[in-house]
Design brief:
The protein is mostly beta strands. The chain has two helices and nine strands. The radius of gyration is 19 Å and the shape is globular. The two termini are 15 Å apart.
Length: 206
Amino acid sequence: MCAVGAVASVVLFAANAPASIEEQRARLPPPATCEDPVEGEWRGKKYEPRWGDWFSVVLEIRRASPGSNILTGKLTATIWYATAQDVEPPPCSPRIRRHYTVEMPGSGTIDGQQIRFGASTYRVTNVYCGSFESYNPDNFSGTIDPAIQEFQSVNNDGGRAVNDPMVFRRVRCFQPGERTQRANLPSVIVAPPLMPPGRSRGCSLN
């Protein structure tokens, strides 16, 4: 006899599991290699099955002064409540509960490849669908991997994000004439399915 309850629990857990780092990477534009190891535009994007929303963040990180370990800049977060297939925000409709953008003044530090960058305040810049309720400013910390131009972070916002993994990729440099600067980024990133199709094997263990 099949353990139907156990199987159902596993399927439910998988369906509500957060997007893996590999899935997040698949949605990001190609990397840009910049002269400075931290300055530039970094992007991260993931779907949250637990909450039924997409979370897309752009970090614009600059040094407070040349060579300084103090960072400044801003964070821009876009959230839309939709299905896992809605990789980009769809038009407003009764099924799209909310879609909005917030902007946060950013600050932080870098020590070697260890970086902290986040905010304590925010302002709502656009409410495209539904209504806005509240937002907890994001604070990312982690390590930069210069070989692949990624900032592998966790987010702690004082709310639902507690050591929540998110990967950022640097996609644009700020230096004028930077050889590898990518000014024209695709607006739609084709992503693989969040979960691979399953195979039915019945009750057999073989």
